[in-house]
Structure to design on (952 residues):
């Protein structure tokens, strides 16, 4: 009784979405590949969240070995087989999904946040503030991203947290540059002048007028980058510098499986590798579609 | 030599958008004699620019010509292939655009751009081309023709750029020039110079000119005949004298009355109520009906007929329909 | 009409510094306005005309203090806007507001009409919630819009409607002076008339003073009480509208006014043809700046700058030709 009342109240709050012909979402809906990719990501995310509840091998997913079951070929009981410590690979992949998705999102979110603010401030104020911020950005940009991440990760002890930190340090400068370039073109617009004319304070102008008008290309870039972020985390783990065992992580699983492929236990690196491949591709397609759809000039191309 | 150079019959241009098909030009008819200075006038969204582009088959996608004929010397442009059009563009019909800074390629000098056109249409050896180009630039009032020839567009002022564009349009000796708002981006005193130049060009070289503009003042000063466009259709057309002194269509009247006329500084500018609708295809009957001070019931239901008021003056309006 | 001076501009000089060169940094100094004097009377519409490069937009920007003049005074209510401290300037801003040429550029596309009109009020006053909403609706009604427009974004409005929103926003703080920089140039003719009539109505209603900048002479002649003509950063002539339209004195004014295309094929008026193009501001001509294009140029024009001369009531001209009469 009470439940149906609440449900009704909730439904009334959310307006029915009539998808307007010609709107961004409408174009998006027509892009089948993007929709499939989105579905894939959503399903993967749900599976990742519910991982402990879905698989009977939850403990193994977390790392607990089960030596008796080691190196089993894929079967009904273990659809993806087991690894050298007898852990169900499917379970490990599900738990690894958590790591990869969270890492990818946090890295991009942090880079976007830091980059947008620093870029907007640099672009808006110009002068020495701009110089200082951009020089610092240039310094970070000079390092090959993976090398810098590796160095930082090597100096600090290997952990997911440190891997994320290391990678974020190499990623934010790109967003600063992007945000700054966008800001420079937006700050000359008349509506910024009008805000000055009203006496609006500088930081308010940045938050209210600049950021909302530069955020779209930045978010698009961010979406495109999630796939790359996931690969980078996995690369670090593959090199032994990322997530330490026994935590499940796709890159680490591929590393571990490398030796075993030579003795015919192909399933150990293959399934994590496949997971990495599909997930990154899904994010790339999604990002591509968003990029095409949010640009009014190219949006017809999805049809 | 009052020969018909260009005859447009029932031109239809449509744009396919996700919201459905949008008619930018629906049923436009006009004909232009050799040596005329013809004006096409209207506000934004009236289809004047698209019509100009359609003549050269330069309608940008998602737009395309979906009906009608454009007869140039009795050959239908609409039916022509792209390679046939390439022969026509520049050599027979050419175009002058609104913003010379945008229409001129910033990476090439003026000379390179003019000679490219001439070479394309095989107008002689390199030396001949160079000489003729310099001559042309001189004729168009650019006293430092050699300097302009070797300059990049951004080094020139707006007026000079526009003269260079006109040179480009003239260099292959076309019969017809379509000038699309050629002076809107220029200062008033320069605008004057360019308009005088166009009139002079027409007189001296016998080139026919179509001038597309929103400025009735410009039309009054340069054109022989004019067609008034509204929402993709011609509402009235005739000679300059007829349009300005025997104004018939309510829209043309409203347009003239809304202009601040320096000779008559009134109290309040008279206004055409409402605004240009964004969804014209949903309208039946006369497109101007919702805003018309003289509208009748049938105006919203039946398309207005084309009424001939004189040999050259026509109006599309129910008010003049004598069959009632 | 009272001749009370609202704004007095004295000796205003505005320079722009361009940094050029990568290895050897060069600074090019371009003076856009030089020693500019102007008085704006309360309640009038002062039209300012001139072609590109004449400095009229810079004049408006200087008045609105979007840029910092390098010298001179802008006296408003006994305060010099040029030397005013930043915080005091913020308070003064409510008195001088600007309406820009293209409303789709001057309105933040991400904000709704309600937010746009409310912004100045939120910034400068304590009005909130229902009182704020009431004031916003009041302003919208003043410009001929209704409550249904509140939640729209600029791109959902027509050009005319968007410009009305910009005007409503400019009036939100009850300014005394409105700087209108080509407010109708981006609009269609039929909409232009609506907006001009609106501006005139509002001026009567709220006792506003307008600085109306435009290159469209017809519009300026219609709406102005006085008209000032600028050329290459200087004021060459200023007079009451009727006088300057019927009897312009400066050769440039004559040429400019005669260049306006008149929508009357039988007007048959004489066009004064100007040769050449506008010189660059970075290398202005010596003496009288107009001498390079003036059909009546004399020797003295190339050498000496003409002083401002009174040729009638409120009518001032900068030209050597008038010395002879």
């Amino acid at each position: 009784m009470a439940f149906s009342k609440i449900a009704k109240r909730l439904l009334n709050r959310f307006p029915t979405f009539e998808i307007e012909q010609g709107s961004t979402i409408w174009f998006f809906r027509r892009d089948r590949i993007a929709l499939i990719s989105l579905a894939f990501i959503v399903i993967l995310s749900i599976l990742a969240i519910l991982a402990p509840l879905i698989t009977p091998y939850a403990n193994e997913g977390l790392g607990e070995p089960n030596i008796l079951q080691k190196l089993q070929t894929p079967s009904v009981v273990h659809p993806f087989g087991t690894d050298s410590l007898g852990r169900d690979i499917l379970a490990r992949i599900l738990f690894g999904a958590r790591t990869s998705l969270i890492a990818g999102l946090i890295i991009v979110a942090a880079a976007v946040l830091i980059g947008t603010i620093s870029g907007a401030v640099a672009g808006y104020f110009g002068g020495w503030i701009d110089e200082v911020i951009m020089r610092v950005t240039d310094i970070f940009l000079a390092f090959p991203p993976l090398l810098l991440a590796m160095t930082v990760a090597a100096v600090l002890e290997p952990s997911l947290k440190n891997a994320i930190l290391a990678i974020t340090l190499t990623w934010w400068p790109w967003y600063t540059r992007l945000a700054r370039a966008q800001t420079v073109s937006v700050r000359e617009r008349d509506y910024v002048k009008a805000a000055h004319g009203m006496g609006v304070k500088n930081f308010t102008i940045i938050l209210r007028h600049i950021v909302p008008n530069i955020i779209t290309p930045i978010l698009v870039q961010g979406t495109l980058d999630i796939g790359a972020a996931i690969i980078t985390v996995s690369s670090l783990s593959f090199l032994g510098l990322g997530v330490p065992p026994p935590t499940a992580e796709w890159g680490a699983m591929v590393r571990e499986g490398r030796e075993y492929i030579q003795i015919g236990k192909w399933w150990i690196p293959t399934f994590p590798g496949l997971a990495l491949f599909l997930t990154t591709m899904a994010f790339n397609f999604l990002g591509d579609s968003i990029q095409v759809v949010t640009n009014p000039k190219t949006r017809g191309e999805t049809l | 030599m009052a020969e018909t150079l260009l005859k447009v019959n029932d031109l239809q241009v449509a744009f396919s958008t996700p919201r459905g098909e949008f008619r930018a030009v629906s049923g436009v008819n006009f004909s232009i004699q050799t040596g005329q200075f013809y004006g096409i006038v209207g506000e934004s969204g009236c289809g004047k620019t698209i019509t100009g582009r359609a003549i050269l088959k330069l309608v940008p996608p998602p737009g395309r010509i979906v009906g009608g004929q454009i007869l140039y010397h009795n050959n239908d442009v609409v039916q022509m292939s792209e390679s046939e059009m390439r022969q026509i563009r520049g050599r027979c019909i050419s175009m002058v655009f609104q913003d010379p800074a945008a229409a001129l390629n910033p990476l090439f000098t003026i000379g390179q751009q003019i000679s490219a056109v001439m070479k394309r249409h095989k107008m002689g050896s390199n030396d001949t081309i160079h000489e003729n180009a310099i001559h042309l630039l001189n004729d168009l009032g650019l006293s430092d023709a050699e300097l302009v020839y070797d300059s990049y567009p951004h080094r020139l002022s707006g007026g000079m750029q526009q003269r260079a564009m006109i040179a480009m349009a003239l260099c292959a000796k076309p019969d017809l020039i379509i000038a699309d708002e050629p002076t809107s981006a220029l200062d008033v005193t320069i605008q004057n110079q360019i308009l005088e130049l166009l009139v002079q060009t027409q007189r001296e070289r016998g080139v026919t000119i179509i001038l597309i503009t929103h400025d009735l003042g410009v039309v009054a000063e340069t054109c022989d005949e004019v067609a008034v466009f509204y929402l993709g259709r011609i509402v009235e057309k005739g000679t300059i004298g007829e349009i300005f002194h025997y104004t018939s269509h309510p829209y043309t009247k409203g347009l003239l009355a809304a202009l601040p006329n320096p000779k008559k500084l009134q109290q309040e500018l008279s206004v055409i109520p409402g605004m240009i609708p964004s969804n014209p295809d949903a309208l039946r009957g006369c497109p101007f009906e919702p805003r018309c001070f003289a509208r009748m019931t049938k105006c919203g239901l039946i398309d207005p007929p084309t009424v001939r008021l004189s040999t050259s003056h026509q109006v599309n309006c129910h008010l003049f329909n004598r069959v009632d | 009409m009272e001749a009370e001076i609202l704004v007095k501009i004295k000796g205003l000089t505005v320079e722009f510094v361009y940094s050029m060169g990568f290895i050897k940094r060069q600074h090019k100094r371009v003076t856009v306005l030089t020693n500019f004097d102007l008085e704006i009377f309360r309640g009038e519409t002062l039209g300012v005309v001139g072609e590109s490069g004449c400095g009229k937009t810079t004049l408006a920007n200087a008045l609105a203090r979007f840029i910092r003049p390098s010298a001179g005074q802008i006296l408003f209510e006994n305060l010099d806007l040029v030397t005013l401290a930043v915080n005091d300037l913020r308070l003064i801003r409510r008195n001088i507001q600007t309406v820009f040429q293209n409303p789709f550029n001057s309105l933040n596309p991400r904000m709704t009409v309600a937010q746009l009109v409310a912004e100045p009020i939120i910034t400068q006053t304590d009005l909130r919630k229902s009182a704020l909403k009431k004031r916003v609706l009041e302003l919208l009604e003043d410009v001929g819009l209704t409550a249904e427009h509140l939640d729209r974004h600029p791109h959902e409005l027509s050009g005319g409607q968007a410009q009305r929103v910009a005007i409503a926003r400019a009036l939100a703080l009850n300014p005394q002076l409105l700087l209108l920089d080509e407010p109708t140039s981006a609009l269609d003719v039929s909409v232009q008339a609506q907006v001009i009539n609106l501006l005139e109505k509002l001026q009567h209603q709220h006792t506003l003073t307008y600085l109306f900048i435009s290159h469209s002479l017809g519009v300026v002649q219609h709406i102005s009480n006085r008209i000032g003509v600028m050329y290459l950063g200087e004021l060459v002539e200023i007079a009451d509208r009727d006088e300057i339209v019927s009897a312009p004195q400066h050769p440039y004014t004559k040429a400019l006014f005669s260049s306006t295309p008149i929508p009357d094929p039988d007007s048959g008026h004489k066009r004064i043809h100007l040769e050449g193009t506008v010189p660059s501001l970075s290398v202005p001509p010596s003496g009288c700046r107009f001498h390079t294009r003036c059909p009546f140029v004399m020797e003295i024009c190339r050498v000496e700058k003409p002083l401002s001369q009174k040729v009638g009531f409120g009518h001032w001209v900068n030209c050597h030709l008038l010395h002879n009469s």
In short: The two ends of chain A are 46 Å apart (CA to CA). Residues 107 and 168 of chain A are 5 Å apart (CA to CA). Residues 12-22 of chain A have pLDDT under 50 and may be disordered.
